[in-house]
UniProtKB/TrEMBL annotation:
Recorded family membership: Belongs to the alanine racemase family.
PROSITE patterns assigned to the protein according to its UniProt record, in alphabetical order: ALANINE_RACEMASE
Record lineage: Bacteria, Bacillati, Actinomycetota, Actinomycetes, Streptosporangiales
Source organism of the structure: Streptosporangium album
Name of the featured protein: Alanine racemase
Superkingdom of this protein's organism: Bacteria
Length: 375
């Protein structure tokens, strides 16, 4: 492994992303695959992950915000891209000019999109979103038909083209949760309403399945799966195993300082860790500003000198300490915080489990000071 020239870096194996996307496609034969590259490709890098996903066989990319979609376009990516959170003030005209598909859940937004399309001089490609039980984005069942009617009116005047009908699960990662079937039924109902209103052409893509649904609910795949976390190699349903996915990110740091201290030394802010004998401490130059959650204090493990070490004391803004005992440690030695586990290091899943969170949060929080290095 090459010696990093930076204090810390996130190594991203793009071949893992390609392989994971290919594996996901295999679970949804006949359906399209969209990879969610929002939040800087779940912390792995927006453009690089967009490209790797397309190379792995994804046909579309998903973004939360228009600006993410425009960044992909600026990098030369021409595949269809959907942006699904459209707060007031988004650059809709620019998005339409750049052929970014837009989600809408309220008639007023359909109108705004149609007006922007008029200015852009081309029809806007729109996915209508139904709230089937998550109670987050999407039109509630009572409002769905009005949304569809407004979109069809705008389609008739040539400013809008309805190209998708979609929804999102609340509990697809909880196998057997009763809301799953309820949402599928509600989605069928929404599709029936849309089809009756003429929005159900064969070119219209119906999609509801996130990673968990793509891997565990064949009946949810419809025309497209919309996968995020699994594409990065992290299990959407950890209690069911890893599904053969390969984690793409390895987070490494170089020891900035190693020193001997006596027994009874209080380590880091608050002295939450006290050495029980004379020992070697190592300073790892990553902190909560880099996404190492402060809750990892005295909790999460790293691999250093070939062995697991628990973080010793408070995670600080830019650094934390590890206790090496009498094992050798020198400035420049590499520490692995998490990776695919093949060298004995923790995985992002272990970090998530030990911190009471999900891997999505572990990887997306890695901060902008940490360069992403691709291999
Ligand atoms: C993030 C996101 C996804 C991907 O979810 P995963 O659980 O990471 O697969 C799919 N759809 C929407 C609307 C999302 O916001």
């Amino acid at each position: 492994m090459s010696f990093p020239m930076t204090p810390a870096e996130a190594r991203v194996d793009l071949s893992a992303i390609r392989d994971n996307v290919a594996l996901l496609r295999g679970h949804a034969p006949g359906a399209e695959t969209m990879v969610a590259v929002k939040a800087d490709g779940y912390g792995h890098g927006l453009v690089a992950c967009g490209r790797a996903s397309l190379e792995g066989g994804a046909t579309r990319l998903g973004a939360a915000y228009v600006r993410e979609a425009l960044e992909l376009r600026a990098a030369g990516i021409t595949a269809p891209i959907l942006a699904w959170i459209i707060p007031p003030g988004e650059p809709l005209e620019k998005a339409i000019e750049q052929d970014v598909e837009l989600s809408a859940a309220i008639p007023a937004l359909v109108d705004e999109i149609a007006e922007a399309a008029g200015r852009a001089g081309r029809a806007a490609r729109v996915h209508l979103k139904a709230d089937t039980g998550l109670s987050r984005g999407g039109a509630a069942p009572a409002d769905w038909s009005a949304l569809v009617d407004r979109a069809m009116a705008r389609q008739a005047d040539g400013t809008v083209e309805v190209v998708g009908l979609w929804s999102h699960f609340a509990c697809a990662d909880i196998p057997g949760h009763p809301s799953i079937e309820a949402q599928l039924t509600a989605f069928d109902d929404a599709l029936a309403v849309a089809e009756k209103a003429g929005a159900g052409g064969s070119h219209v893509i119906r999609h509801i399945a996130n990673s968990a649904a793509a891997l565990t609910l064949p009946q949810a795949r419809h025309d497209m799966i919309r996968t995020g976390i699994a594409a990065y190699g992290l299990s959407p349903v950890p209690e069911l195993g890893d599904f053969g996915l390969r984690p793409a990110m390895t987070l490494v740091a170089r020891i900035a300082l190693a020193k001997r201290v006596p027994a009874g030394s209080g380590v880091s802010y608050g002295h939450l860790y006290v050495t029980d004998s004379e020992t070697t401490l190592g300073l790892v130059p990553l902190g909560y500003a880099d996404g190492i959650l402060r809750h990892a204090t005295n909790q999460a493990e790293v691999l250093a000198g070939g062995r697991r070490r628990r973080i010793a004391g408070r995670v600080c803004m830019d650094q934390f300490m590890i206790d090496m005992g009498d094992d050798p440690l020198a400035e420049g030695d590499e520490v692995i915080l998490f990776g695919d586990g093949s060298r004995g290091e923790p995985t992002a899943q272990e970090w998530a489990d030990s911190l009471g969170t999900i891997t999505h949060e572990i990887v997306t929080r890695i901060g902008s000071r940490v360069p992403r290095v691709y291999r």
